[in-house]
Amino acid sequence: MVVHEAMVNAGVGAEVAATVQEDPETFVRLEAPVVRLAGWSIPTPLVFEKFNLPDVARVYDNLKKILNY
Hints:
Layout: E1 2-7, H1 12-22, H2 24-27, E2 36-39, H3 49-52, H4 56-67
Protein name: Transketolase C-terminal domain-containing protein
Cofactor: thiamine diphosphate
Keywords: Oxidoreductase
């Protein structure tokens, strides 16, 4: 799982996930797909940034999905 604060699309996490998925040696060792968890893909004013960032609940929900894969 790649967790970062930027938008989920076209962010650093997307590039990291793509690099892991595209590398044949790494890809065959994965036990579950690479999951990106990031801020929502919407422009966010600084006042509302805390609502856009990944929080513990979102991380926990994604970890449960990965472990149940």
